[in-house]
Design goal:
By secondary structure, this protein is an alpha/beta fold. The chain contains 15 helices and eleven strands. The strands form two sheets. It has a six-stranded mixed beta sheet, sandwiched between helices.
Amino acid sequence: MRFQNDGRLVVLLVICILLTLVSCGGHSVGRTYRIGLGPWVGFGPLYLAQEKGFFSEQGINAELIVLTGLAERNSALQSNRIDALAAPVDSFVLAAGTGIGVKIVMAIDESVGGDGIVAKKSIHSFEDLRGKRVAFQRGLPSEFFLRALLQEHKMRLDDLKAVDMETAQAGAAFISNQLDAAGLWEPWLTRAADQGNGYVLASSKQFPNLIVDCLAFTDRTLQQQPDDVRKIVDAVLKAIEYWKSNPEDANRIMAPHFQVDASKYAALISGAKFCDLARNRAYFGSDTSGPIFQVAQRASQIWLDAKVIPATVNPGSVAITKFVQEAH
């Protein structure tokens, strides 16, 4: 009887182990990392890495949390409700300038037309925006892009009738003829231009390197779990490689997360370009000479001029090159 009970115990133990392996896709999954991200189509590889099991292959469990506003994102970082955030370079310069400890470890996608300024057809040049109602969402890429272009044309935000408005609302307001122009990203950029009888006055297609969406981790996570950060970077890069070799299947997986079908998603990401390992290494460079640090320096000056941050931010304190240099 004793040996029979022991046998049953062994069988139960084996069943438990098998169930655990099956539930984890055959991989032992450790700590859960909470990654914040916005509703931007360029963040698709994060969902792809999750659904294809690339995170779990690395022994990582990732929880993706949609955060739309700047205040919501910064609050989540400060309170340690998230371990990482996907956002453009300028967002992390802004965070660093307000005392939030966070550093970029990789680039996910770069905007190559997915962000821009839509305007009425009566506006023929950027200078024509003087005194006009122009909407954008504070603290997000639309504000940074607009300020960068104003700087290019030797103008200031005070030259406009600036309106702080959430991106979808700004797009809808432009369509309903309540605005002269708006800083938007896809799908609202195309939708507003088509339905609002306007056109794209300027887009990120003409300004490479400026709006690049990156993945950054809190200083706490980088100090305590650097190996896990490296694994997450590898998982996201694997997702991007999967998209390169299997675009139709990858688009099918990513599309539902943005409430569109695969064909629509494919059209939307034509305004973005996913950053593979080679592009990451080129963007970061081997030290602080890569384009990312030049963009960070420009962002620091723009936010300082806008009196959003109290002092300049050292570009070298915003990003770490070693994770993309050591990735494989």
